[in-house]
Amino acid sequence: MSTKRSTYSIVGKSRPKLDAPLKSTGRSLFTDDIVLPGMLHGKIVRSPIAHGRIVNIDTSRAERLQGVKAVITHRDTGGVMVGPDQMLLCDDTVNYIGDEVAAVAAVDEETAAEAAELIQVEYEPLPAILTLQEASAPDAPILHTYCEDNFADERTMVYGDPDKAFAESEYVRSDEFISNPTHNCFAELHVALADYSLPGKLSMWTPSQTAILFQKNLAQNLGLSESNVRMCCLNTGGAFSGRTDVKPHHYIAALLSRKAARPVKIMCSVDEEFIVCRAGGNNIYRFKTGFMKDGTLKVIEADMLHDCGAYVETQFIVLLLTGIMLQLLYKVEAMRYQGKLVYTNNIPYYFHHGGGMTPEQFALGQHLDLVARDLGIDPVDLQLKNAVEKGYTTLSGTHYASCGLKECIKKAARKAGWKKKYGKLPPYRGIGIGCGVMSSGGKGMFVHDTSAAFIKIAEDGKASLFTGLPDMGQGSHTTMAIIAAEALGITTEDITVVSGDTDIDPFDVGSFSQRGTFTTGNAVKAACLDAKKQLAKTAALKLGVKPSALVFKQRSVYPKGAPEQAMAFEDIVFDTLHSKEGRFVMGRGFYNSPSDKASLAYSFGTQIAEVEVDPETGFVKLLRMTVAHDVGRAINPLAVEGQLDGQAFSGAGQILFEECLMDSGQILNPSRLDYKLPRPFELFEIEHIIVETNDPFGPFGAKEVAEGPLVTTAQTIANAVSNAIGYPIKEIPVTPERILEALKQKQKQH
Amino acid sequence: MSTKRSTYSIVGKSRPKLDAPLKSTGRSLFTDDIVLPGMLHGKIVRSPIAHGRIVNIDTSRAERLQGVKAVITHRDTGGVMVGPDQMLLCDDTVNYIGDEVAAVAAVDEETAAEAAELIQVEYEPLPAILTLQEASAPDAPILHTYCEDNFADERTMVYGDPDKAFAESEYVRSDEFISNPTHNCFAELHVALADYSLPGKLSMWTPSQTAILFQKNLAQNLGLSESNVRMCCLNTGGAFSGRTDVKPHHYIAALLSRKAARPVKIMCSVDEEFIVCRAGGNNIYRFKTGFMKDGTLKVIEADMLHDCGAYVETQFIVLLLTGIMLQLLYKVEAMRYQGKLVYTNNIPYYFHHGGGMTPEQFALGQHLDLVARDLGIDPVDLQLKNAVEKGYTTLSGTHYASCGLKECIKKAARKAGWKKKYGKLPPYRGIGIGCGVMSSGGKGMFVHDTSAAFIKIAEDGKASLFTGLPDMGQGSHTTMAIIAAEALGITTEDITVVSGDTDIDPFDVGSFSQRGTFTTGNAVKAACLDAKKQLAKTAALKLGVKPSALVFKQRSVYPKGAPEQAMAFEDIVFDTLHSKEGRFVMGRGFYNSPSDKASLAYSFGTQIAEVEVDPETGFVKLLRMTVAHDVGRAINPLAVEGQLDGQAFSGAGQILFEECLMDSGQILNPSRLDYKLPRPFELFEIEHIIVETNDPFGPFGAKEVAEGPLVTTAQTIANAVSNAIGYPIKEIPVTPERILEALKQKQKQH
């Protein structure tokens, strides 16, 4: 569509991640690799009970232990509260199993662990509230006194006239769905290394999706100016929305360092990781929709209860995102949404990979699948009938300048052989379709969605590209290098990406909300065009043409139509530096999402799954998935395919396997052995369909390909399973136990 | 003088070095603090003889030692020569005691040392040539076959008609002077940490004055593109011209790392340090001058022999600098200079702190002092009569846009009470005067003297200043921060200096030739003015005035004459970032020395020393020094005074104490105990006179205050000692033994 891929030299050609050699040989530096002179090791003392009063904390034995350099309790925090409900270290109340009560720093991990055990905390237990039902009951005990009920946040959105739309609907259906707690399971455990040994400047090494937001929060709560918190975010071993917030261990490392006047590293153990992580919670999703008999969707109503756990932190985002996303995928007349965050004495939750939308979209997708069944309409036709398209403006005012949803649906259905299979498969075989939409950044959400970038070009024509966008493993630095190489007419091998230190990085709010390729990519492109302008000035003089008549391509510069006059790119750089002014080539660029409402560009996707269910064991075998995604432009097709594979695999885990088993506020399976992740032998065949719609606002036409595919996978597989067993899926993950239970219920009905 | 100091808010106000808290609490990171995962330790096997053939190298026992990961000899270097005369590791010949023959990398230092001892090298000794006389004799054996005699380099400079000038002179005098080898004695020993574990990219951590030149040399000799060598130059514990060149241990660390596929650190021992350092050599300086009887200098002729030692490396610089500097201080009609670098089997020399000019200037200064005595002219008057001044153009075409030499002479003489003391002191008390000149950078010398700088300003109004100029302890980063703060109207506390990584730093050839304050300072100022322009655009809109009518001062911005309308600097930054374009403030600047001949700006200095000599022991007691220096503008008066003190102290060491005692090519005193440095109890009183001439090309009028004061000190003290004992000083250092010998000679004459 419009600009052909062949216009570009670098964009659209598959290439491995630039850091693949380093990663695959174990040479990439992660936070735990950093050893500072005089560094201490920290250990946190956590509450063993879900709710209670602290009667006494005795740190004297720990303080006397040889090798202990600092012990801190709430008396050392200056009473700092992080958020409206959370003491930096608990003073009189503990609110969940794992709540931070005290911490020690010692010369080695063993001594720190021993000292932590020597700290004696006396508790007076209080009744723990552990379910949404208990917590939201009108007479429930209030968990946080600042809040008059247990609703930490509530949000309502209404567009159009839902009551009228329901009244006009020929068919109305309601369903309730439940999601259970999940965990992100990063490859790299949570770790923080703080050097706050001199007052006035805190340096912190930690994996993070957003150094800028970490910096802001740490500075605010420690009473520093933002720039006096230096965040060093090296390689990050996975993040999945779990590294957007400062966690208590970050503050604790800083305070221990301040007290001991030495750097302090806190490396979480695997079971601690399950407590610190803040992933998906136990939520309830109620959907009600109104349709015309021909399958035209008129109205969506959604009512959600999210288990907040003990502290609210930044969970307001979950309510915002799950609400706003509801009216983006289908043409709809009206929408009503109500979301509530409910305090309990569980671990503070947040959301698993997918911005809270994976379980929500599962619920909506399964609900629509049930509607299709009721109305006797092929689910593919139902999707096509209601799908948004290019030029459409949503209820919330979002305009789609590009949209490949219908193309995705059609191509996926064709490739998966939908028509030949749907309704014609043998017993316990099923096929399902799901559709999804995802924003590409956008400041309307909750941040100042701005990126800056900077590029310097050395004498040999090689460049350093500065960005504050971290790469958590998804290859975003490679994407940025491709954008820069294309813009400058050089190759990705010529580019070193510099990132991960707030003293150095240009402003960038970080890697979340699928904003990297779109927002940072636009800034990177602008910086490179600025550098190119400087080079064009030199080249134009040398080649005797106007700067606008120059072509920069494959490390050479020539007048349009005269490649035989080409000068080497590096010679132009050299000549610019060695000119009379000694001009060193440095380009700068900015991008600010111009829309105040939401994102400028949305990706769309369709997936089709085929499954086989074993009725004896309840085990689901994923046979095949077809994954179509409108990415605007595939900057690096290999990385796009990697994202499609990775997100589909992760989505399969969320819908089929992953669950934190909770008992009285305690996680029963806090280990990589007992928490069931999809394993390599559970891999399935994936067909990729990359749809390119050349978005007018994206860099070289690109949009997100981050969490977009993920939120579609769960519903797709659920719909296929439901199709296989002929019974609705109402609770996830769809474990063998739940499938056997569904089959039992189905039998009862007959 | 023109712009008054009070015009500035920050410039001209004394402030401590920004890194003082870090340095004084041991928190600054030096290369040896860096520990990389899997890092090995390297050890070099060196020649124990000054000249010989290698018959055999047996590494088999070392290779079999547990913990050894790599052993290299010349067979692993690919025959790379560093320079015209030097194999990276010796193949068939060793040329000095310490020459690198083999190296090992092992899991710890002890294992590496043990393995190094297990390497058996069989030598066949050859006659060693160790003196300038032997080496320059017409029938001397040739040390390097590529060179038809033992002169590694020769340079002649002639300006005007020296023969005519001598013929017209009413008085002609010749003298010969000798300097002995010295050592730089950095606080931080030589160290290199190389990570070349993956092909195609070498990362090297090492203290250096010039990351760019290290990068160029390493890349060239290892067959890499420049940018594929990443130099990380952290804090540097002293340099004194001794860290401008890549040394063999740098290459060796890289090759060991390549072979072992792991990072390798080589930390030199103290005695190795004396071999690796390349400091001052054993040189001969012959001066002949022609004068009129009234003291008018007409012509200078100089003939110098420099002991090159075993390898030439970059010693061509010495011949260039010592030549060009001869016609910069005095108005002279003609000049003739011949310099030769002579190969011997001594350690490869270079020069001690001062660009080779400390002994040369001692020789010229003492020579002129003897002339004054002969002509019966007060040395102060002789200096004043011949001193260059503002507006003067030298024989080599250097024009002085600012020059405070006469002011320095007059002020120093007045402050030191010269008139009351000269010729009127009791026996064995002496007073001496010396004058000096020094360039402030300048590309005419030997490098592309360009600096670039870059500044980014964060949301809270604090800035990161990017520079490739290293700070070796002299406080140049603080100077850059002051220049930036003044240019932006903020404070030095608001500025973080980012430097020391070629992947990040803007182009800057480094810290040598006294170029930092002048050249980099100009680039920094330009970068800040560029950032200010971006801010002024926002502020002008907010305040309703033209950008040119704005004042940036003390963290606020206001219309000229209306400080009551001031907006906070950080609010302007915030508004710029949060504007519609989301413009992040990033300023870039360049400075290229426009003169092709030499420097644009020269500093001038005058010193007066008073000494007392003990005729029994020959011991010199320095009573007092008056140090006047034309710095153009004192950016940070405290740092200027620190430089004046430090250089005078270092100069006193060079003239009175410091000497590498050589025997048959072997250093006899390679330790900090046996090599005599001036100690704290040898400190003397120093009176500072800061002369400000507001150079039109310098940043805020500033010129160098680096090695300028140093090269004046040695001659000044020598002249005072000569004045005290009534006998010429012909050899340095002026140790008690040499003074007693001079007194003996003096007695013989009478």
Strand order of the largest sheet of chain A: 3-5-1-12-9-10-11
Can you tell me the CATH topology of the largest domain in chain A? Aldehyde Oxidoreductase, domain 4
**Quaternary form:** homodimer
Largest two-chain interface: A-B, 52 and 53 residues
Determine the fraction of residues in helical runs of chain A and give it as a percent range. 25-40%
Low-confidence sequence ranges of chain A? none
- What value does the average pLDDT of chain A take? 95
Largest sheet report of chain A = 7 strands, mixed
The backbone outline of chain A, from C-alpha atoms, is globular
Q: Which structural category fits the helices and strands of chain A?
A: alpha+beta
- The CATH superfamily label of the largest domain in chain A reads Aldehyde oxidase/xanthine dehydrogenase, molybdopterin binding domain
- Work out the helix count of chain A: 19
Which key features would you list for this structure?
750 residues, Aldehyde Oxidoreductase, domain 3, Aldehyde Oxidoreductase, domain 4, 7-stranded mixed β-sheet, 6-stranded mixed β-sheet, 29% helix, globular
Can you describe this structure in just a few lines?
The first copy, chain A, has 19 helices and 29 strands. The radius of gyration of chain A is 27 Å and the shape is globular. Chain A has a seven-stranded mixed beta sheet, with helices on both faces. In chain A, strands 7-15-14-13-8-29 form a six-stranded mixed beta sheet. A four-stranded mixed beta sheet of chain A has the order 16-24-25-28, with helices on both faces.
